[in-house]
Amino acid sequence: MTDAPEHRDRDDALAAEYVLGVLPHAERVVFAMRLEHSEQLQARVAFWQAQLAPLTDEVAPVQPPARVKSGLEHRLFGEAPAKRGLWNAVGLWRGLGLVGVAASAALAVALVQMTRSPPPGPAPAYVAELTGESGQVRMLALFEPETGQLRLNRTSGTAEEARVFQLWVIADDNPPVSLGILPQDTSGSVTIPEDLGAALAGGVLAISDEPAGGSPTGQPTGEVLAVGQMAPL
Amino acid sequence: MSNEINQLIARVALRDRAAFAALYDATSAKLYGVCLRILRDKADAEEALQEVYVRVWMNASRFVAAETSPLSWLAAIARNHAIDRIRARKPQSVDIDDAFDLADDAPGPEEAAINASEGGRIERCFDELPEDRAAAVRAAYVEGYSYHELAEQHAVPVNTMRTWLRRSLLKLRACLER
């Protein structure tokens, strides 16, 4: 691919056509395939998605039939009545909210990623930016599976007197697993046990506020201050 | 409202089923409206809506971060999915000419509207396009029309429609990036 202006314009027009959805099916499929492998195209799709998204503001809401919701829950959670594990029961996550960790491009990238399969082979490293509603606690995490090192760099936030920050990893539907208490220092690294490596690579990291010595229950008990998804670097 | 939805998405990312149910209750009417508008078939829209929320459950952690309206984000996901469905449902056998001709035949009205309309930048930039071109772009997005449908409505050949729309999109870009 060249960087000639005409090529860029053509690709940009294609990206816009893709977002608009006007392309015939075959062309749409071909473009989606190219999109998977081109960060440049992904950026252009992100641009158009962000710009055009407000157009759906004018679409009137329509209440879907109740069967959609029950069917959905059946499909996702099976027939068994929802088990309220400690994770839900404690109501830990009430009040949790996130502020933006990425620029406006994030939407389309998310959209693109949703339809992408994970990249083949092991990725060399994974990163997450953990942020929270208040923005008081922010941390960057970098995980290298080869060495098992999780490097942490807290850019803001310190624990209150007699409190600690505890780090958790959540993989799929599993309850959080403690990765330990964050050191006072703003940067440091943690060695991740081998059996947790896979969980970390695709998991969600979270920081909770806990009493000195860490959570007494083995699960987060205090306010969740920051959350971030690990993604291949 | 936005903040509330952001919080729900964050909790869904942490596998909170109650939050997922609440997110559904808060957003499904909008998303169903979007799907229905494009698919124009209730059963199809219901199926699409379910699939959209399955993706939301599976991938919520990928889009916990929102600087713009999270409802717009979700609507965009629903819209994208509905478009995928409708294009797959009615595959067009005729290919459209991909000839790319940037040169414009007529200069568009350059007097940019100074007062920003309610809808923000995109609306302001629509004002810089000829009215029928802006309407075509809008209809493509909101109604999910294909090139073939747009061409029929504007009574022009499909290839002409594509040239029009592409020029319009590049003009829009120039305005949006200003």
Q: Can you summarize this structure?
A:
Chain A has 233 residues and is an alpha+beta fold.
Reconstruct the topology from this structure.
The complex is a heterodimer of chains A (233) and B (178).
Chain A: H1 5-20, H2 25-37, H3 39-52, H4 66-77, H5 86-89, H6 106-114, E1 126-130, E2 138-144, E3 149-156, E4 163-170, E5 177-181, E6 187-191, H7 197-202, E7 204-211, E8 224-229, E9 231-232
Antiparallel strand pairs in A: 1-2, 1-9, 2-3, 3-6, 4-5, 4-7, 7-8
Chain B: H1 2-13, H2 17-39, H3 42-59, H4 70-89, H5 121-126, H6 131-143, H7 147-153, H8 158-176
Helix pairs in contact in B: 1-2, 2-3, 2-4, 3-4, 6-8, 7-8
Uncertain stretches of chain B: 104-118
Q: What radius of gyration of chain A results from the CA coordinates?
A: 21 Å
Write the element-wise H/E pattern of chain A from the N-terminal end onward. HHHHHHEEEEEEHEEE
Low-pLDDT regions of chain A:
80-108, 115-122
CATH class of the largest domain in chain A: Mainly Beta
